[in-house]
User: Fold these one by one.
Assistant:
Number 1:
Amino acid sequence: MTSPTYVPLDSTQHKHYSIVQDNSYSHAKDFNLVNVGFNEIASLSGCMPLAVAVDDTEHPHALVAVVGWPQFGNVFCGQQEWLGHALPLSIQSYPFNYALGEQKFTVLLDESAPCVSPDTSVGVALFSTDGQPSSLLKAQQSALSSLVAGQQQAQAFLKVLRELGLLTRLSVSITRQDGEVHEAANLLSINEEKLAELNADTLLQLHQQGILMAINAMMLSLRQYNRLVQLTRTNENPIEKVGLKLISE
Amino acid sequence: MTPINRIVIVGGGTAGWLTAGLLAAKHSQANKQGQSVSITVVESNSVHPIGVGEGTWPTMRRTLAKIGISEHTLITKASATFKQASKFVGWHHTNKINDENKNSRQSHYYHPFSAPQGSATADITPYWLSERAGNSYYADDVCFQPSLCEAGLAPKLPNQAKSAFCANYGYHLDAGEFIALLREHCTQQLNVHHLIDDVVNVATGIHGIEALTTLNNGEIKGDLYIDCSGFNALLIEKALGVELKDASHHLFADSALVCQAPYEQENAPIACHTLSSAQTAGWIWDIGLQHRRGTGYVHSSAHQSSHDALHTFTQYLGSVAPSLAVGDKIREIKFKTGYRHQFWKQNCIAIGLSSGFLEPLEASSLMLIEQSASLVAEQLPAHSGVMPHVAKRVNATLTYLWERTIEFLKLHYVLSNRTEDFWQDNRNVDSIPARLAGLLDEWKYRPVLESDFTSATEAFSAQSYRYILYGMVHGNSPFCDSYKYMHTPLNAKFASKQLQLNHAFTRQLHTRLPSHRGLIESYYSAIR
């Protein structure tokens, strides 16, 4: 995949541009982890595992959805369609992205994306001939607005989790049909013991802020690793078993 | 007793072909006894439709579904556009709005097709009258549709599933293209016989019409004749002698100047509502079609000379289409306002302009055709022996419909506070139909009720009356005080919630819906 060429969306410059919709979201076929917003936890947690990714300095920096493994790529990208009932906004909003300046939200378009066409002979137009955004573009603009809001809320959520010491390392091991085992511990999840130790006032506060529900959803979402395993079945060397371990530090 | 197996429709305009389509869709298949009804349209080649753009009601969606014409076909083959409302500009003078945003608004109000928020549960008008009248616009407060129209947005998303949300809508049509589409569909899909010929003689006898003589096809006989011959009224009036019941003492307009105006730019936004602007002695309609607009000045020749009327109209055209060289593009149509004393006499029924004419203020013309034709299709008598019973019932129903329609049109004039002679005369008590005058008296002491309109075939509901009445009245009008006489609480919690919901819903729709032109273009795009 060529690297994206994001340019600010412009109703004059992109007047005749159109998008060929790709129901399998194949641009994301090599993804393993996808950034998600706080407002996506409820919908995604019943479809894919949610965890926290760490940066190079081991600092927890992003709320993520797990959509595959390096050996398999994104297991939700089927031949014809997306194989989940929920879809992360950042995948959905492709080939658009956003930039945040001072008080300014700019919609960006990846002009190099294969689904982007500089004329309206194929695909769905971004603008109608009266220069107004099409319903497709309006839907994408709404998705981007939710994405921005959700990502900002996610940072606040991670801050709370860090401050309360509620994050712990998650070790995931997979065993493939030929017996090969891979183990990775590059993600963090909720430390259930620490959560159980929180006092009633803190729990009440977390509940009132809607954070407790998100914490519970994240814990339950780990069961969706089974769904990921299931989706590798079509692979010639699928995963037979997945093991999860929370490592208290 | 003769079975009704042959229906002959004289006239191939919108009325003739819509009637043929509705009848054929219901009756042209053979029944279990192996009988089918033959439908023939005799259409003159020398008569051409006016073609200045017509508005439909949402009922047209059902009518076309019955006939078997898809929306996709209507949009791509008949240049149809969507209509969500009528917008009335300058029908009343007001300085009631204090809101800064609305201060610059010309005096206008909307009659949207969608129902007020929460109206399925309760009418929130009394609360609105008590809290908002005088400071805000009724339709804008209770319905999302005026805001969509102002923003030029479509009533729905492209290619959406039938179950998905859409605002209620009808269409704007080019009559000529619409007729061509109906004709093709009726003859190719519904087995309607089509004769291009002129009727030169109508033979009558004691049972009504016995036969038609045509110029090139000789004699044509039917068991039921439908007069769709337009203002000619070839069968109902010329042959059977049923005269028009004059209604020009209620509605004064008797002339229309019409013109097709181009858009200033090829891809200009298309209005998703009929624009109706009040003038010195009438009003101008402005309908957005895909490639041009259809306009017309309906006026009273008794109140304005034809010279002055032309000036009024050209001034309007100059403001909306400055580059239009008006020249000989304006045509004049004269009409008589009224309806037949009898719509169905013996073996003949009149549908369309032959049955009567009302100014197109609320696009009632096509609605009356749809209603009449559906009624005939539904009640088609099995044989001549039962025909008088059907005729009696249909006459009563249609007379009721026309009378109520006249009252509703008159309502728009009665509530105006314009001061020109035409408008003052319209408020003369003698010109107001008695039933309407009675209701207006009552509405000073209580808001409009559903139970004011009780017929199963009511043309205009309480909802429509509310949009007009509360759209036009002022804060100090007695109609705005009607809630004060109520003995029951205003249900403020429910009502204020509905106003909030309408506001939130409106905002949400703005982030989703494409422009009206955008929706139209989606019907032409390669990918559906």
Note: Residues 72 and 235 of chain A are 8 Å apart (CA to CA).
Number 2:
Amino acid sequence: MPRTLFDRIWDAHRVASLPGGADLIAIDRVFLHERTGAAALARMAETGRTLRDPARVFAVMDHIVDTRPGRGDGTLMPGGEGFITETRAACRAAGITLFDVNDRDQGIVHVISPEQGIVLPGVTLVAPDSHTCTQGAFGALAWGIGSSEAEHAMVTGTLRMERPCAMRVTFAGALPPGVTAKDMILALIAAQGAGGGAGHVVEFAGEAVRGLDMEARMTLCNMATEFSAVTGLIAPDERTFAYLAGRPHAPADFADPYWRTLASDADAVFDSEIVIDASGLAPMVSWGTSPEHTIPVTARVPDGPQRAHDYIGLAPGTPLAGTPLDAAFIGSCTNSRIADLRRAAAILKGRRIAPAIRKALVVPGSMAVRRQAEAEGLDKVFEAAGFEWRMSGCSLCFYAGGEGFPAGSRVISSTNRNFEGRQGPGIRTHIASPETVAASALAGAIADPRDYPA
Amino acid sequence: MSAFPQPLVARAAPLLRDNVDTDTIIPSREMRSTGRTGLADGLFAPWRYVGADTRRENPDFVLNDPAYRGAAIIAAGRNFGCGSSREHAVWALAEYGVKAIVAESFAPIFRNNCIRNFLLPVVLERTAVEAIAGREVTVDLAARSIACEGIAYAFAIEDEAQQMLLHGLDAIDLTLQHRADIDAWTAADRTARPWVYDLPARTQESVTP
């Protein structure tokens, strides 16, 4: 019987079928961070349970670490240091590999996992973080869970799960210039709604997906959680294997024929299919307070929930382009990798952000990304344009009570969530690609990146 | 942690919005310690209080209405609990006293977190959610039914989740009964996919900046 890639990975990891209808699924990798991982480790210690295989559990400090150069355990978030010190102590006690605050390989969990070759095609990987779906870009089944489920995975090496349905989203045709993976996923969520992927594992396929580099594939899979999908994934190909080969935790090569079996059969049947014409897509920007409130940058704000219009301060019919901005942010597990920074820097090179922009940050996704960017001189481009150049971390993708944007700011952001208050109380967020953030920062207002050629 | 109070009789607080996210249920700034307690005060802080740094109640928010203060049931729209995986959202709801959420749909991670903490997620059609919102209902988990003003609304929930909530079963304890299966699977997989298991220890060189 023909099978999807999801079927293959699920079936290969099914340890048992449980009486209540769920399956017991083996988990190959667990990745923790200091914000939610410490709670899982603390409960395990309280109950006297132990990790089944600490060598396959990893942890990183990324969520609330300071991103200013010269950082230590101190953080602007009140009480934040406790998350760092408690996580460090718990990782040491449990024998977990920790990428600590000043480790040369520190970075956002979903950026460093591929850099280290911890995620591999065909593995199951879970983390108490909703954007774990990012790692599906490597053909892994990778998804976000809660702290209790993380504890379950660490203690038993498994999770109890009902088998999800399979969906295929095909991006047919080639992307036009200036349109990116971020615009693809935003267009999907705008068309289908923030609940459109509920109950499904989504495989992204089609010519436009095949044409994406690994960084862009991660951007595409990253927002599967904003689509309410269990996760997203992309079948591995030679580009995937070339990226991973020889990384510290990955095989030296992918010559074994096994790796080429990780794909959906040509005649596999999906429970649900969506086809999008990639050649007709445009740069997308959110106008409201859910990722489904997203339109092409050239469009006018549609009729939406009154609450969303009130919070964001844009009435139906208003052109989105030209909306004045106060701040700009480039970073997050969505768009903070070297390819993202190169594309944003190409637009900013030799230019200066508008005086109206009171705060502009570039936060690289990992220290390795930061070093690479500096080797290419991108840091100087960002600083000359008026952006601050930071150490890596999640930073202002969300507001944790420490560093924030100026009160009342309207922010153009390469992040994944435009919820009310996500980047701070009263802060209004517009999510977009790094190119759109760069162009908009130059204009001081929401702008079309195609008007700012590199 | 107690199991689901069967049957649950309470008024359903109406919060008929779509895409209520976990950042709103418990903002990151309200997660002040690594523990699972002390979160109820920050529940729905952006909507429940006036201003970010005060605890002055917003009279327009449903849980500040004397009729719904301390509500055990919340009636909501579609995609409830979307966003961050933070289990703190469920811990905050549970500590506040919420025992069941009736919604048009749930985000998947939030729904799992509910079950692990014995908080019942019920999916009903929009018209049914609207019909029970603001009214006293009886939730019978054993019968998978919600009764309101003489009308019974059937709901679906997996057998396993139903039994876990009714009997307060611990998922890890249940799974550890399959230890032999897990050991056998792992032994075979170790041969088939050695790269999953054979991992290098990180060197001191790699951890210093």
Note: The first helix of chain B runs from residue 22 to 25.
